[in-house]
Design goal:
heterodimer, A: 4-stranded antiparallel beta sheet, 11 strands, B: mainly beta, 7-stranded mixed beta sheet
Chain lengths: ~110, ~120
């Protein structure tokens, strides 16, 4: 199974400041078609997860451009250029390259 | 509105069975691969099962293989998860999710249904 490792576990942030979350996979997520099968999700308190980023760097519809994803192979990063209150919750990365699909352990973003 | 609505959760004794349903609306259900993902209390997300658009391919996590069965009825726009021989460790919120076309990611999630396995 592909193991997904996120860091940090917890990320206290000041509104308006940048934030960054790392996700590393135990195997490359680069498909032969050139796409990285890595997605990012945010689970706000008491809600279902919602898609933020797919195929490594593509923003889902409605996701603000202050949120971005980059990386390739085994190292990926979710960046928030200016944290807002709506970014609070647990962020997860997930690989969809092979079964079983696997998620990172999550990074809890909270406002200082 | 594109929507997934789960139902069928509840309290069941160890060894018991439950069938979860996920009704889709607002999109052409038969065109999409569908998934079940669960989340134990206070824990992270775990993939459970997937089914392709015409039911010709199904996959399961090792932890549920042989006990859970994923099916779908494209005429009724509904996804199912039959759960047998339930264990205490199956206690979780179960989400159905849609695999967005050419996204290889879950672009629509249901609100979740809670399964509690306890004596």
């Amino acid at each position: 199974d592909i193991v997904m490792t996120q860091s940090p576990l917890s990320l206290p942030v000041t509104p308006g400041e940048p934030a960054s979350i790392s996700c590393r996979s135990s195997q490359s997520l680069l498909h032969s078609n050139g796409y990285n099968y890595l997605s990012w999700y945010l689970q706000k308190p008491g809600q279902s997860p919602q898609l933020l980023i797919y195929l490594g760097s593509n923003r889902a519809p409605g996701v603000p451009d202050r949120i971005s994803g980059n990386g390739s192979g085994t190292d990926f990063t979710l960046k928030i250029s200016r944290v807002e209150a709506e970014d609070v919750g647990v962020h997860y990365c997930m690989q969809a390259l092979q079964i079983p699909l696997t998620f990172g352990g999550g990074t809890k973003v909270e406002i200082k | 509105e594109v929507q997934l609505v789960e139902s069928g959760g509840g309290l069941v004794q160890p060894g018991g069975s439950l069938r979860l349903s996920c009704e889709a609306s607002g999109f052409t259900f038969s065109s999409y691969w569908m998934y079940w993902v669960r989340q134990a209390p206070g824990k992270g997300l775990v993939w459970v099962s997937r089914i392709n658009s015409d039911e010709s391919s199904r996959s399961y996590a090792d932890s549920v293989k042989g006990r859970f069965t994923i099916t779908r009825d494209n005429a009724k726009n509904t996804l199912y998860l039959q759960m047998n021989s339930l264990r205490v460790e199956d206690t979780a919120v179960y989400y159905c999710a849609r695999d967005g076309l050419r996204k290889n990611a879950f672009d629509i999630w249901g609100q979740g249904t809670t399964v509690t396995v306890s004596s």
